[in-house]
TrEMBL record:
GO terms for molecular function: abscisic acid binding; protein phosphatase inhibitor activity; signaling receptor activity. Transmembrane segments: none annotated. GO terms for biological process: abscisic acid-activated signaling pathway; defense response. Residues 29-133 form the Bet v I/Major latex protein domain. GO terms for cellular component: cytoplasm; nucleus. Belongs to the BetVI family. This is Bet v I/Major latex protein domain-containing protein. It is found in: Nucleus. Pfam families: Bet_v_1.
Length: 158
């Protein structure tokens, strides 16, 4: 069984400003600081923020399910502001998913605003097809809001 979910968040910020955070490793450094209830730690396993980069993401103690997951950057498009990361170990793969991919697109709207479009694409194995694991964009929505607020604070806009 395959599926996808999407969330969009209007930032009120230029796309280039949002991509500065999402496009490389900075987003992984910021999430544990801004949202320790979502991820307690994000560690660089290998890479420099480009395709092939691997991160180890640790959930806060007491989070139901897995303690961690590893993700690999499989696409980083600095011109079109698109990043795709694939979970390669742990996390959702421990709970019936065969594939779990997150795509972040920073879409230019007008001169001074953009949209963070977060898409989850997934495949569930046959034994979970009738009772699929829960998939939600709520975590990505929370991250988009927190990162937008952070950028606005850094630029003195809030």
């Amino acid at each position: 069984m395959k599926g996808s979910l999407r969330h969009e968040f209007e930032t009120g910020l230029p796309a280039a400003d949002v991509w500065e955070v999402y496009g490389g490793l900075l987003v992984g450094d910021l999430i544990p600081q801004l949202l320790p209830e979502v991820f307690s730690k994000v560690e660089l396993v290998e890479g420099d923020g480009n395709v092939g980069t691997v991160l180890l993401v640790t959930f806060p103690p007491g989070t139901p399910g897995s303690e961690f997951f590893k993700e690999k950057f499989i696409k980083v498009d600095n011109e079109n502001y698109i990043k795709e990361v694939l979970v390669t170990e742990g996390g959702f793969l421990d709970h019936g998913f065969q594939k779990y991919l997150v795509r972040i697109e920073i879409i230019r709207k007008k001169e001074k605003t953009s949209i963070i479009r977060s898409t989850i694409e997934y495949e569930v194995d046959h034994e979970h097809a009738n009772n699929p694991p829960v998939v939600s964009t709520s975590g990505l929505a929370t991250i988009a809001e927190a990162i937008t607020k952070y950028i606005k604070e850094q630029k003195g806009l809030e």
